[in-house]
Design a protein that fits this description.
single chain, seven-stranded mixed β-sheet, globular
């Protein structure tokens, strides 16, 4: 299974995928890693691992539609079976979703459908839940509304801050993402 991984920041989910491929735990080919920004550590991680990279800098485009088209073109060049949003902090256009139906996988730091959006951990804490977690799902045109593939629960501990809880969720998120990609690869 060929994948393209999209990142916006440090690439810890990406590193989990790279490590799992290198160890033989995950049987996928990382065709490329792309970013919506220039100079992300995630892209540096990919380059260090010998993986093709591309940057489609959102700030370089006068119109959102131009960026959307450039991102789609960059990803399609690699002919991926699956596109993985691994900390990619941009909502993609419906044309991108349509190009990869049920093949654009996203991670989210909450148990969807609860607490969608950019602040899932903060929102879960504010609501007072005792259990939250992470979700791997197929992205659709909504915000964190696509079909759920897998979830993992994380207990909220007394005294948790957004940061401490998010760090424990990230550990589960990386594990769940690698396991889910493995299942998708075996089912193809």
């Amino acid at each position: 299974m060929r994948i393209v991984v999209l990142v916006s920041g440090s690439g810890t989910n990406l590193q989990a995928i790279i490590d799992a491929v290198a160890s033989g735990e995950l049987n996928v080919e990382i065709a490329a890693v792309g970013s919506d920004r220039v100079g992300t550590y995630g892209v540096e991680r990919a380059r260090a691992a010998g993986i093709d990279t591309f940057e489609v800098n959102f700030k370089d485009f006068a119109a959102r539609a131009e960026w959307d088209a450039a991102l789609l073109s960059a990803v399609q060049r690699y002919e991926p079976d699956v596109v993985v949003s691994a900390g990619f902090m941009r909502i993609v256009a419906p044309s991108f979703i349509d190009a990869f139906p049920n093949r654009y996988v996203n991670t989210h730091p909450a148990l969807l459908p609860s607490f969608p959006g950019a602040h899932g951990v903060r929102d879960a804490l504010a609501y007072g839940v005792k259990v939250t977690g992470c979700t791997v799902h197929y992205a659709d045109a909504g915000v964190d509304t696509g079909p759920i593939i897998a979830q993992a629960a994380v207990a909220v501990q007394a005294g948790d801050t957004e940061e401490t809880l998010h760090e424990r969720i990230k550990v589960e998120e990386r594990r769940l993402l690698v396991a889910t990609l493995g299942e998708l690869a075996r089912s193809r």
